């Protein structure tokens, strides 16, 4: 043996070591989809490389036909491992092959192993001219069944690559990188295994030169990147495809020429397409709906409402148009249509209900309550003995409370409907305006203000109306004593301002706080008014938070509001 042959033999054995290591790792992960196929491929490539090294050894370690038999067994592991890897990876689940299919697929491999093991009797795999101690498989003289074995192997490893190439068309991110590494490893390793059959026709290449173990090592490195760097077993790329196929939203992928390259069942059902519409122009498929083509031609949009009429029925959709990019290059456009017909109808029903309630609150009930209050006052005036004073006072108080709810409901509706942006609001002047209004109308109300004049918040324009409601709520729910104390304090923190409104009243009922925290009114749990809902809405629209609890200093209610601090 020359030094070159010896070096190459040891190099083949060294290449098999990391390949076997990846096989061991895949075996430990064998419950993951794709791991079984990867284990068979790596184990087969490791054993294949070792048998090639033994062929190159200076002395015959075993008969050529026996070495070839063992090598064919390892080749069969690769032949079946690769399709198994691809199928489990693309379907993202372990694959079970039906018994008839398995038997049919095993016919050629079983015959190959049997014929190779009995080759000295018939020479159908290796011709009699094959040397008894060859320098490499390049000196093999192939029999007819060896050619059948090669053809079967090529077919088995070529077809699964098509599945990966198909997935590659719509893959993005780590899924795309996984596919590229799997395909690159396949393109290098499996066709590269035929290198000796090419080199045997090149006189300048010695017969012992076989690059198959090296190419298998490169394949293992590429697959290792997909395995460890991009989490081949951890990520579920097919879940993305599965989601697209089962989602109720219509999805179309269009290339730069306006040709549809992909669609999901929801899109085909929406546009009444039988079969696959891949390869059709977008205008031909969506010709009955010019609004879709118009939005596509406008370019990138999000949440645009389009209405489609079909057979007298109008359906409403929210349409997104997004670019498909590979790196810095735009390769197409994604069209997403979400059916919002039920939502639109629900919005119309709620709008109608709001108009009716608003009209009743603003006009009918308010007018009738005003008339009722007037009659109560007339009764009080005509009853000289004062025997109806308590009843009249109760009527007037309840009437005023309902009228107050009506005003709050009107304000709440205005806040909900208004499309306004947050404003820079100096907090000290706003608080003092509220305090001044109540000091004039309620001499017994003492409002202590501690707000730094430099504090400015970014809040909804109705924040001052919310402050008025908090002060009014403290006055209205007091226990009736002559003096009422309300403290208003503000302290700036990191990026926010904490505003506290506290009073010395009896405190707010716990069910009022629970209702507000729950965010809804129920039959068993509801608040007594609308004011706190309005305050909560204004604070949330300002990007802040609201908390209500008992005040430890004054003994009443403490409302704590966090608002963003203006830059």
From TrEMBL:
Keywords: ATP-binding, Kinase, Membrane, Nucleotide-binding, Transferase, Transmembrane, Transmembrane helix. The keyword Transmembrane applies. It is an enzyme of class 2 (transferase). SMART domains: HATPase_c. The chain crosses the membrane at residues 6-27, 39-60, 72-89, 101-122, 142-166, 178-199, 211-232. Gene3D superfamilies: Histidine kinase-like ATPase, C-terminal domain, PAS domain. Pfam families: HATPase_c, HisKA_7TM, PAS_4. One of its GO terms (molecular function) is ATP binding. Residues 360-567 form the Histidine kinase domain. Its EC number is 2.7.13.3. It catalyses: ATP + protein L-histidine = ADP + protein N-phospho-L-histidine. This is histidine kinase. It comes from Natrialba swarupiae. The lineage of its organism: Archaea, Methanobacteriati, Methanobacteriota, Stenosarchaea group, Halobacteria.
